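Training component of the fellowship. As part of building independent skills, the fellow (R.M.) carried out the full modelling exercise for a liganded target. The chosen ligand was zinc ion. The inputs are recorded below so that the supervisory panel can assess the work.
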Amino acid sequence: MISTRKVIPMNSPQDLNILRHSAAHLLAHAVRDLFPKTQMTIGPATETGFFYDFLPEHNFKEEDLIKLEERMRELSAQNFIIEHTEITKEKARTIFAHNTFKLELIDGIPGDTVGLSSQGDFYDLCRGGHVASTGVIKYFKLDAISGSYWRADRNNQPLQRISGTAFFSQQELEDFLKRKEDLIQFDHRRLGKQLDLFSFHEEGPGFPFFHPKGRRVFNLLIDYMRTLQIKAGYQEISTPIVLNDKLWRQSGHYAHYKENMYFCFIDEQSYALKPMNCPGSTIVFGERPRSYRELPLRLSEFGLVHRHELSGVLHGLLRVRAFTQDDGHIYCTPEQIEQEVTNTITMAINVLKAFGFNEISLMLSTRPENSMGSEILWEQATSALKNALIANNVVYDIDEGGGAFYGPKIDFKVKDSMGRLWQLSTIQVDFFMPENFDLSYINSHGAKERPVMVHRAIYGSLERFFAIVLEHHKGHLPFFIAPVQVTVLTITHEQSAYAHELIQKLSTHDLRITIDDSSETISSKIKSAQCAKIPWMLVIGKKEVEQKTITLRKNNGSQEFGITLEQLITRIPSIE
Ligand SMILES: [Zn+2]
Ligand SMILES: [Zn+2]
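Fellow's submitted model of the complex:
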């Protein structure tokens, strides 16, 4: 027997895997001690922790997790050395003679030997990769019992899975558990219901219903983007949701995307609901001859697209079957790409920051192997994109060969308040579609030329963006898109007249404002405004009426007393 115990440094994700897999053994050890008739199967580390699948004598119950955790702590305190040895299969078959799962595993391992891990008097079949001793496994938590099957096959023996997580420090464990709790509490589906924003119904799975307040937010997202786009020289168009097969065959969607499209018949002809807005945009561009003087031509569209997603992957507003894109197509010359992309990057960063995303990462994806378009064109476009990134003074990564076959692109990812990365904005250069739809413009010498097309979306899907912003802010939408921004709360009905006078005076400032002058107590009024996550509460009592002032209470509980209407107006947050 050769002992191959390794000394493990502890700071990389690999080390965390080793720790978590060792925690799975520790769990099995505790299970053997407390429930000796349990059969062990496998216990790997996962992305967020570990699990072990068991065949228990009696099904485990929630209470057992506490007992097991306690036993794990005792075993950790005893600090058993974890040893790994290679033993012959023959010997292993004797050791695990009572466990058909382990016997099956032994048969499946190539070679004549298998690994045996041991700590104290507990041993397990394992190929190795553990921490030095059980004492290293200090910060762990068991969090769930669920059903599983041997080898994840429904036809096999049903098992019970106990899962948990482990970290190298108490702080990391606490942060993880807090984040997990937050993810449940601030799930946009839950917030959507709480704040009465949107809902989902079996009458249209994957097709969201927006309630008045949710639709207001949605419209505010559109208004904000529309204003920016007008400033940036876009002209808004709208193209039909239903278009015939001929178009989708020409665009290539019929050949490559048919499974995700919805079809219907009109006058015995096959039509499809558009899964993308681009072909519609090219029809608008190609509708009449274009001059070089019109370029760059920026056409924007809040385009409603439909994509068939399997019911199993639908997930609130994050994964739907119908969504609106803030789509934009820029038709330009290759020389114009750089300036257009520079402006688009600036715009995207400003928008993402306005919504509170301060950690933004950019990725440039370059020419893949099977690409179309000339080498010169690719080089020109790629260096235009690089220069645009440099002009914006942003750090970016390069995904060599990661571009689409029809052109290089830039993707934007943001990190949210719960540490998750989301891909949002995208800028995609396209040499193919202008070719495919035979788009042209007349250059300054009177000759026909092919424009380049730049597809870009800042929000991406408005539905998805809505969900991400909502979760990022834990339901407290930024002031400029809050469905209700201000609520006036009177302490008694004697202040009603003054409250209405205030609303009247504030009405010129485009605020979304409500009043609660009901007979409820002020504390209950504050509580319900807080639950509705209204950013500002204007609390009006006797003193405020006498002094013609306002108490401004923010949703976080901070209060400012005795401010005048003029002072209040200067405090209205503005964007841009
Ligand atoms: Zn192991
Ligand atoms: Zn497009």
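The panel noted the following from the submitted structure. The first strand starts at residue 39 and ends at 40. Confidence is low (pLDDT under 50) at residues 1-9.
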